[in-house]
């Protein structure tokens, strides 16, 4: 993943610096409003990362010690870590092989009476079937949080991922389509939650620095609860506004490149590429392939062959339960998670990628398939 950044972002950041307002301020508010409109949410709250967004979402839900939260192990470790930040217990659910996402069935297999929330990850930009998950969670009495870190620009049944979500968390890390360097967002349709999230990101303060600055009379702030320093800067938000304006072009280009990969890989036997689910479209933040059983070279061998050809590819999505931090954490069997994590690899895909560069990638895969 190579971010699509240019002179427009550089100018926007420079203008923020020149304005003298570099901390959380008017550009953050503008970015929040534009982002909320883009994803179909009533409110957006900018924060310092998607990890802090997930943390605040769980705090807003009053998840804490004694509670369980069902999460996929097949996700960046932050998804599980956020549950531990609030003192709750992450419970790992398996995923379906086609999308890499949890389903009603995989969550139902591990939930218990202590399950207070479920975190559904739109993995690699492939949308999860949130309609089914929302209905199931309502029946179970559990809150559904959407980890949309990878999914800006993805859609479910014609609507943006995150539209109608109870709470959704987003990332602006450089590996995402829209980047602010570091940064994140929480979206919700609940005004009370949005108000509390804004307090929590700023040490529980009842009046932000921007509100104090705008007031014609002195404002003596108070701290209503223990909060956090999870703010986004105006420099980041200035870049984010430019990036958000490029989103349609980014998604269109990535889908064009993904379709070309599909065509080129049709005659490479034993490699199954990621596909759109029937209910939505992904943004192809990641284009991963899964070698079928019997493919002559394993995933690590493919990575080595690509590296020898000067091509940087990546292993597939990690499995948190296999990492040292969770090695002693009890969990149900997770065969699909372990299969995808062990065998999948992510191919290069970026906005300025050329046909010649794609051809080089596929030529290596085709050669390895004949071994």
Automatic annotation (TrEMBL):
Q: What does this protein need as cofactor?
A: pyridoxal 5'-phosphate
User: Which is one Pfam family of this protein?
Assistant: DegT_DnrJ_EryC1
The organism sits in which domain of life? Answer: Bacteria
Q: Which family does it belong to?
A: Belongs to the DegT/DnrJ/EryC1 family. L-glutamine:2-deoxy-scyllo-inosose/scyllo-inosose aminotransferase subfamily.
Q: Which GO terms describe its molecular function?
A: transaminase activity
Name assigned to this protein: DegT/DnrJ/EryC1/StrS family aminotransferase
Q: Which species? A: Actinacidiphila acidipaludis
Per UniProt, the keywords (alphabetical) are: Aminotransferase, Pyridoxal phosphate, Transferase
């Amino acid at each position: 993943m190579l971010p699509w950044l240019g002179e427009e972002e550089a100018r926007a950041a420079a203008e923020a610096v020149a304005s003298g307002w570099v901390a959380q301020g008017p550009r953050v508010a503008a970015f929040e409003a534009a982002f909320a409109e883009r994803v179909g949410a009533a409110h957006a709250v900018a924060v310092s990362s998607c990890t802090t967004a997930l943390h605040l979402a769980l705090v807003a839900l009053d998840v804490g010690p004694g509670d369980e939260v069902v999460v996929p192990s097949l996700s960046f470790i932050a998804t599980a870590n956020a549950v531990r930040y609030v003192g709750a217990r992450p419970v790992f659910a398996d995923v379906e092989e086609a999308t890499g996402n949890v389903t009603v069935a995989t969550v139902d297999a591990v939930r218990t009476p202590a399950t207070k929330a479920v975190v559904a990850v739109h993995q690699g930009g492939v949308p999860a079937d949130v309609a089914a998950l929302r209905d199931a969670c309502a029946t179970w009495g559990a809150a559904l949080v959407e980890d949309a870190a990878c999914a800006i620009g993805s859609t479910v049944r014609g609507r943006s991922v995150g539209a109608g979500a109870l709470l959704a968390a987003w990332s602006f890390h450089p590996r995402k389509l829209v980047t602010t360097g570091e940064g994140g967002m929480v979206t919700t349709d609940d005004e009370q939650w949005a108000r509390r999230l804004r307090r929590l990101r700023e040490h529980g303060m009842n009046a932000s620095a921007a509100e104090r600055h705008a007031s014609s009379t002195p404002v003596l702030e108070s701290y209503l609860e223990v909060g956090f320093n999870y703010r986004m800067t105006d420099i980041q938000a200035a870049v984010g506004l430019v990036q958000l304006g490029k989103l349609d072009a980014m998604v269109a280009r990535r889908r064009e490149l993904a379709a070309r990969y599909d065509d080129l890989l049709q005659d490479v036997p034993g490699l199954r590429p990621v596909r759109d689910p029937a209910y939505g479209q992904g943004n192809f933040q990641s284009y991963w392939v899964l070698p079928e059983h019997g493919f002559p070279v394993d995933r690590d061998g493919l990575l080595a062959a690509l590296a020898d050809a000067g091509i940087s590819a990546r292993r597939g999505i990690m499995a948190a339960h296999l990492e040292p931090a969770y090695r002693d954490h009890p969990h149900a069997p997770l065969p699909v998670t372990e299969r995808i994590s062990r065998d999948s690899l992510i191919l290069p895909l970026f906005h300025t990628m050329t046909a010649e560069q794609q051809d080089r990638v596929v030529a290596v895969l085709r050669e390895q398939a004949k071994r």
